[in-house]
Amino acid sequence: MSSIGTGYDLDVSEYSPEGKLFQVEYAHKAVESSGTAVGICCRDGVVLAVENIVTSKLYETNCNRRVFHIDRHIGMAASGLLPDARAVARHAREEAADYRQSHGEPMPLSELASRVSNLMHAYTMYSAVRPFGCGVLLAAFENGRPQLYGVEPSGVYYSYHGYAIGKAKQNARTEIEKLKLAELSAANGVKEAAKIIYSCHDEVKDKYFELDLSLTSAETAGRHVIVTGEQWTEASNYAKAALEEHDSDDDV
Amino acid sequence: MSASFYTKPANNGNAGVAMETSWDSNPGRQRTLQPITTGASVLAIKYNAGVIMVADTLGSYGSLAKFRSIPRVLRVNDATVAAASGDLADMQFLNTVVENHAIDEEIHEHGIAYSPASLHSWLTRVMYNRRSRINPLWNTYIVAGTEAGQPFLGYVNMLGVAFKEDCLATGFGSHLCLGLLREALDAAGGYAGLTEETATSALEACLRVLYYRDCRAYNQYQLANVPVAKPAQVSGPHFLQSDWSVAKLVKHYTE
């Protein structure tokens, strides 16, 4: 059961007697109740995938993607409050553009991750603002090396081989650990990421979702590309087929 | 993050009325007085299925042919290219701004990109505003591309004078070559009758005339071709063949 921070959870500037910042923890809850986002570093690229839960069939498809371009070579997947994620994306884009204009070269992902982390952390220190209710996964393929960073509402960030945030993060992380990432090509990684999203999706609670997929790899020449068209259909079919197989196994 | 909820568009005002000299408030700061490292002519012509633009690769330092492979043609996106003559530092500055805008538009993925007409319009506003502050970007730009299946060609200079035409030239090119380009168009009955090959050879002939007669021209150039249904291509450096044997006929040439 969640601990109730009565009296110590009104401002993010207040610690509880146990040394917790309850507002930050509540922000994490916002991430945990949102669709899963997954990032996988493959042999020659990075894949991002998001279970973009859609609450109404009236929405146009792909109107609220949860995968963003941050400059040409960096991608961001978000879980949690989408408007907060957009604010983070906007800031990250400014940072990346400024860096490119001053340094004459694209911003290294490690540097951007640090800036995003600083931003999100800044919003955990003052009572006048609230922490960002989103977690983000940042991906790039730099100098032949795939890179993935995950930043959480507290501002903490790590570099990962593979990571998942959101509703089914535990299941997804377990699935990622089963993959042999060093041998997995990015093209296959796209299919595997789709499969993980589908297998972790809770059919009962959230009926309808869109699969947001993106790829940054040697094949895309380091550009962050949103996966659409044939490649998306192939990945989504692979994922659905794997689900059916799994379901039919249960019948035995 | 800024606390303001709405910012009004910048108000330049004062243009032509009481101009405060910037060195009162900021002694180190100066206004543009003269171009330093310069690029010579840019030439462009529409043809039946697109538009072609050429610019040589020389950066002149006064009368010194100092930098001999400066790219002056910028590929903005698949449908738009731009080239500038005049001060090359100002050109490189503006090109960086344009490129950054183009990247911003790409990453938002709305399917909206700079069309040549919108780039031309934006450049016009920038150049005119700078001239209105008596601190111009000392360039003449030609924007070329395709818009709604039609070729586009536009001119903007440092005064903010802007217009669109079927053939354009800057600098010496406007004196020596515009007539030749117009003749080519007239002979074909308009750009719709001009083939890519004829357009290219007309431009090359003009570049040769410039190399013979303009002291700041050069025989190495870039060529940009923006066909209507295909992505823009910038190629180069191309080399111009020229024949200087007539020099021997000049009295006192060899003494």
Automatic annotation (TrEMBL), chain A:
Keywords: Cytoplasm, Nucleus, Proteasome. It comes from the Eukaryota. Gene3D superfamilies: Glutamine Phosphoribosylpyrophosphate, subunit 1, domain 1. It is found in: Cytoplasm; Nucleus. This is Proteasome subunit alpha type. The keyword Nucleus applies. Residues 8-30 form the Proteasome alpha-type subunits domain. It holds the Pfam family Proteasome_A_N. Belongs to the peptidase T1A family. The keyword Metal-binding does not apply. SMART domains: Proteasome_A_N. The proteasome is a multicatalytic proteinase complex which is characterized by its ability to cleave peptides with Arg, Phe, Tyr, Leu, and Glu adjacent to the leaving group at neutral or slightly basic pH. The proteasome has an ATP-dependent proteolytic activity. GO terms for cellular component: cytoplasm; nucleus; proteasome core complex, alpha-subunit complex. The 26S proteasome consists of a 20S proteasome core and two 19S regulatory subunits. Its main location: cytoplasm. InterPro entries: Ntn_hydrolases_N, Proteasome_alpha, Proteasome_alpha-type, Proteasome_asu_N, Proteasome_sua/b. GO terms for biological process: ubiquitin-dependent protein catabolic process.
TrEMBL record, chain B:
Keywords: Cytoplasm, Nucleus, Proteasome. It comes from the Eukaryota. One of its GO terms (biological process) is proteolysis involved in protein catabolic process. GO terms for cellular component: cytoplasm; nucleus; proteasome core complex, beta-subunit complex. It is found in: Cytoplasm; Nucleus. Its main location: cytoplasm. SUPFAM superfamilies: N-terminal nucleophile aminohydrolases (Ntn hydrolases). InterPro entries: Ntn_hydrolases_N, Proteasome_beta4, Proteasome_sua/b, Proteasome_suB-type. Belongs to the peptidase T1B family. Non-catalytic component of the proteasome. This is Proteasome subunit beta.
